[in-house]
Specification:
single chain, about 60 residues, mainly alpha, about 75% helix, rod-shaped
Length: about 60
């Protein structure tokens, strides 16, 4: 896999890496893991809600009255 960054993105990542005393690759990989984890959780929650909310729609409607 090749990740192409703009010059500005590369420079920002380089500065962040220097500040944190970590490699640019380490920072990019960590951020990618966090992105995947966050979005995976959101997708799972959306799927569960899509499947379960209709089951309880009547009860939820009554609670809202």
């Amino acid at each position: 896999m090749t990740l192409r960054l703009t010059d500005e993105e590369t420079e920002a990542l380089r500065r962040r890496a220097e500040l944190e005393q970590r490699s640019m690759q380490e920072i990019a990989r960590q951020e990618l893991r966090e992105y995947i984890e966050t979005h995976s959780r959101a997708e799972l929650l959306d799927r569960v809600l899509d499947e379960e909310l209709p089951r309880y729609a009547e009860a939820l409607r009554r609670l809202g009255e």
